[in-house]
Structures are given as structure tokens and as C-alpha cells.
Amino acid sequence: MTLAVAAAAAVDVGFARPRQAAVTLVTFAVVVALAAGGAALAYRWYFRTEIPEGVTALLGVSVVALYLNTTSLGSVAIGDNPALLAPESVFFNLVSLGVAAVTAPVGRYAGDRLAVDVFALSGAKQLEGELSGVVRALGRFTAVTLPPADEIGDVDTYDPASPEKKAELAEKTLLFPRKLSPEALRERLVTRLKDEYGVGYVDVDLAADGTVEYFAVGSRAAGLGPTLAPGSAAIAVSADPPNSATVGDTVQLWRDDPEPKRVTTGELRGVADDAVTVALDESDAERLTDEGGYRLVTLPAEPRADREFASLLRNADETMASVTVAAGSALDGSTVGKLDAVGEVDAVVAAVRPAEGSVQPIPPRDYVFGAGDLVYLVGGPGAIRRFEAAAATPTEADGGADADGWADADGETPAADRDAEPNDAEPNDADAPGEPPSDDTADRDGASAANPDGTQRS
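C-alpha cells predicted for TrkA-C domain protein (458 residues):
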């Protein structure tokens, strides 16, 4: 009898009795919020990401619909005849479902925020979403939140990261120990992004509290192209490589039909059974008209400073660039030894080509930069970016300065275009190891890679 009365009361609830209807709707809202919040917390705990909005909305509506259907079926089972299709009952049921649909996102947001804060305090190393101010203040960690995907820049001189990779990094929150210096925090962030996300290169500026001021990523160059010098090409031919032939050997290609004849000389870049890949001059590559029938002769090894430098530079975090010092810039009149004081630049000045005169290899610390000097640098993306900002004219620096005065709002500096070819500013084959490019090489680079403002990148 009691069950019958409860079922009948649940079914007969309507706006004819406003007090009872209001209590029922509030109860529905609380139950839906708790269900959506619990689902959001469990989803965050298991999948480490935010639950989709549609899932919580469907869950909230389902909870109310299940209750309404259960009470209606219970009333029918005990022999009662509830007015299920009466306009008052239908309207109340629709309002109940609407309350569930509106309340579910509120519970989802509260549950997800609670999950993020709880997991942060429990020692998680990575989160998605923003931490509350209380957790940031009480937690024994520094939270670094990456910017959205459309604010993640590309590191110049490197291949751009894919949109999928940027979307994967977007708005991630990484947790680090609180008592870290800004430089140590930056190093740990860069290391984690490379190890956990497979990012090739990272250029980031952090504030003392862990706020990201500038963030750009790049991928490592793949394939043979980045290692080929200008005017050279790589071609695959069928030959008979020696068993001990390895990448980097200097080889000669010969044909013995109708009589032995040397075709060209190149550098071995790959061996796969009888197929070999050889890097050689473009003009020599045009003479290889046949795919097979060649014989290889391995020559004694010779020091190749440019090849060794390109190989080391390709696998290192640093890159090479050439920047022109503009008149009136912060570097105009400064010395090599005062780079850190001018713009916190920790790049290595490999050589300087003055506006008038010959190239100065490894300039001394008291060398004074002048307007029009072409400076060859080796350093990380961030150091080169700051050097470019310091070498720009005050007008360019003011027009594109960020909070620190060195880069513009979107992370771009008034630098020149880059051709991603480190060999442009490397020694040629005739130069000794460690020497800067010869005058002829520098002239050729200046004619081919210079931008209208006189700045160029390698």
C-alpha cells in the first residue's frame, strides 16, 4: 500500500501543486549535478582528459528519464491507471528533462575542476586544464600551462611541427617542483617535452612564476636533403659495394662496358644490398644515365670539415644562423664579450664579416660590432632569436617587442628568412677545419641568401 502511494505521488506530481513540483525539480537538479560531476571525475582519473559535454548531458537526462519511467511502470504494475499522457504530466516531464540538460554541464565543470585539483595535490606530473588559485598557492609545485594550439609558434631554421602535435601540446599543464630557478624550470620543461611528446626542438621563455611568455616547437629534419650542400644531389644506383663500405666513404663510380671508364666521384650515403645512394655534384648526377652496371672504388678517407660540421649540427640542439647588425641597434658599438649584458645572448659567435674587410674567424671578446657586420652564430633557437632582436634597429624592435622588448607579439622577430641549409655558412672543401667561410663563399651566400634588409639565416 505504501509503495502504491509513493508511485502514485511520483506520477501525479505536476504544476497544479507548485511547492511539490519545485521540490521535485530541485531534487532532480541536485541528483543530475552529482551524477555528472562523478562521471567527470572518474573520466578524468581514467583517461587523463576532460569528459565530452555530450556524454554528461546524456547521462543527466538519462537519470531523470529513468526515474520517471520507473515510477510510471511501478504505478502500472500495482494496478493503478496514471494519466501519463495528460497535458499536465507531459509538460512536467519535459521541464524535468530540460532541468537535467541544463544542470549536467554545471556538474561536469565542477567535477572536472575538482578532479584536476585533487590529482595535482596527489602528485600527478601532468594535467589538462587550469588549476584553481587555491591549489596553485598551497601546492608544493610550479604549474606550467602551455598556450593554445594557435599560439604555438614554429622554431625558425627547423621543420615546423605538425598541427596534430601542436594540438596534443595545447593547454597541457605540467607540474614541477616549486623551488626551481627559472633556468632550471625551463630546462626541465624542454626535457619533458622532448622525452614525453617527441618534440624535436623547443624555444620557450618562462616568467619566474612559470607563466609561458613565448613558446615555439620544431621537428628534426629528416632525409638526405638537409645534409646536402648547395649544388649537390643524391642519386641511387645499382652497383657492387664492398662488404665493408659505410656511409661517409668517398667512392668512384666506374663503368666497364665497353672499357673501364670513371664516371664520377661522390660520397656514399646509403647501402641496401646492391643498391647504393651516392651524393655528388648536380652536373655529375646528370651523367648517370643508367640505373645499373656500375662498379664502386672506395678511396682513402680525407678530412671533410664541412661534412663533419653538418653532421654534428644536424644531431645537436643548436643551429647556425647569420645576422646583419643594423645601424643604431643595441649591438651597434657593443663588443662580443658583452653579448649577455646587451640581450642575454648565449650564442657562440663563430665569425664576423665586416661591412668592409675580410672575414674575422672566432673574433676576440673585445671585437666591436659595427653597422653592416654579418655575424655567424651557433646557438639555440632562443639565443638566436634574442640576438636578432638586439641586432635590429630601434624602430623594428619597438614595433615588434614583447614584454621583454626582444620579440614581437606572435613570437616572430625582425629576422630574415632562412633556407634551413647550414652548409651555406660553413667552410668549403678547401677550407681548413674550424675556419670561417672564404670570401668567395661569403660573397656567394650574400648574393643568394640575403634579404632586402641584409639579414640572412642558414
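The longest strand covers residues 261-272.
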